[in-house]
Amino acid sequence: MKELEQTKRISIASVLFILIILIGLLTYKRPKYIYELTPQQAVENVVSDNFLISLNNIPTTDAAIIDIRSPFEFQKGHLENAINIQAAEILNEENKIIFDKLKNENTTVVLYGANPNEALAPYMILNQLGYTNLKIATINLIYTQNKLVTQNATLELSEADVNAFIAASLKKAMVKEKPKAKTPSPPKKVIPIKKKKKMPTEGGC
Amino acid sequence: MINRKLAKASSFRYMILACILILLAGGLVLLPKYQQHEGIKPQELLGRAISPERYISTDEVASLIINQDPSYLFIDVRDEESYNKYSLPNAINIPLDKLLDEDFEAYLNQDEYDVVLFSNDHFYANEAWIICNRLDYKNLRVLEGGLNNWFHTIINPTKPTENMAATAFELYSTRKAASMYFGVAYPEQVKKETVPAKKAVVKKTIVPVKKKKKMPTEGGC
């Protein structure tokens, strides 16, 4: 009798044990995307600035060019041989396949948007996920007369020295405006008005 | 015969079971290392990074500084040299390469203040913003256009031409007033100042008021 009770307990315990393991296995979900770079590595990568590529340096062969603007913008005009993957959809299933394929083939992927800033978010996220073959094209897209024009963009260039500007404005304000020296006005030409000679009043009718 | 052997083995059964479990537990060591996610999900980060919600305009920042709003922190992510040259008033310098230093974490990872990140453009600021957002730091904003835009709109606003709307003129006058606050002088402003300056010199002289002595009331008529 005692033996029987013991086996009962053991069987219950083992069933429970197996159940827990099964539940654990079934509920375990591998996250679809995992960061391969730690934040610190991401900072180092970003500081290095070597992911930027100017218009002339975009390789014409062996590179995939990806337009991250909306399909609408893409239809209006895009770079040659570019594929359109909207920024919001870069992590979709089918796009993941494309990026994985490009990564395995080790082809350079050049991302571009209307300006480099637009391409930054997709780039940084994909890069942190371990796609190291990405670049950002530093170009601005502008429409002139309905034609797409690409320009090289300059990033993070200080355009003006604010302190110098303020100092200059102070100097300018301090200098009292000198009363303009009167330029001798050209002598007025006197046009003698010919007096009409009074005619003796002619008789009316 | 068989029974006896079985009985012998069964007397060890608990030991054997325990050994098996311990061995299985040892197997856990061999499992691949669980890859830990440092930060929020990439999908969520993408959603946040695409929305332009994070941008704050230069006009807003100017009014925040002028009103001395205590709930905002301004963080310059450029290098030290450019920070020393010019930066927003009361800005803190956190160079991009030192973004995740422990000394600066208290500035970025907190709930008390709204943090405005800025650089010359908004490219570096965006980089910093994305990395901080991955770590789920709250209340981060980016100055739209950065210091270049700051210069063109607040420090040196362009005068609207005559054919522009009245709102453009209003905007210009507020921006001009803001630029005066930040130290820019305009010739016409100085002229106005000279006039009250002269008035201020006049010293107040105290004229003691003589109390009238009360006269004994004289009889009336």
Q: Would you give the CATH topology of the domain at 49-152 in chain A?
A: Oxidized Rhodanese, domain 1
SSE succession of chain B: HHHEHEHEHEHEHHH
| Major sheet summary line of chain B | 5 strands, parallel
Largest sheet of chain A: 5 strands, parallel
In round numbers, the mean pLDDT of chain B is 84
Q: Please provide the count of β strands of chain B.
A: 5
CATH topology of the domain at 42-152 in chain B: Oxidized Rhodanese, domain 1
Strand content of chain A: 15-25%
Describe the strand arrangement of the main beta sheet of chain A, using strand numbers: 1-5-4-2-3
Report how far apart the termini of chain B are: 157 Å
Give the CATH superfamily of the domain at 42-152 in chain B. Rhodanese-like domain
**In order across it, which strands form the biggest sheet of chain B?**
1-5-4-2-3
Number of helices of chain A: 6
Helix content of chain B: 40-55%
First-residue to last-residue Cα separation of chain A = 163 Å
What is the CATH first-level class name of the domain at 49-152 in chain A?
A: Alpha Beta
Please provide the count of β strands of chain A: 7
Description:
The complex is a heterodimer of chains A (205) and B (221). By secondary structure, chain A is of the alpha/beta class. Chain A has a domain at 49-152: Oxidized Rhodanese, domain 1 (3-Layer(aba) Sandwich), CATH 3.40.250.10. In chain A, 40% of the residues lie in helices and 15% in strands. Chain A is built from six helices and seven strands. Chain A has a five-stranded parallel sheet with strand order 1-5-4-2-3, with helices on one face. A two-stranded antiparallel sheet of chain A has the order 6-7. The longest helix of chain A has 26 residues, at 2-27. The mean pLDDT of chain A is 84. Chain B has a domain at 42-152: Oxidized Rhodanese, domain 1, CATH 3.40.250.10. In chain B, helix 7 (123-134) links the parallel strand 4 and strand 5 (140-143). In chain B, helix 3 packs antiparallel against helix 7 (123-134). A five-stranded parallel sheet of chain B has the order 1-5-4-2-3. The termini of chain B are far apart. Chain B has 221 residues and is α/β, with parallel strands linked by helices. Chain B has helices at residues 2-10, 13-27, 42-50, 58-66, 80-85, 102-108, 123-134, 146-155, 166-181, 187-200, and strands at 55-56, 72-76, 92-93, 114-118, 140-143. At the A-B interface, helix 2, helix 5 and helix 6 of A face helix 3, helix 7, helix 8 and helix 10 of B.
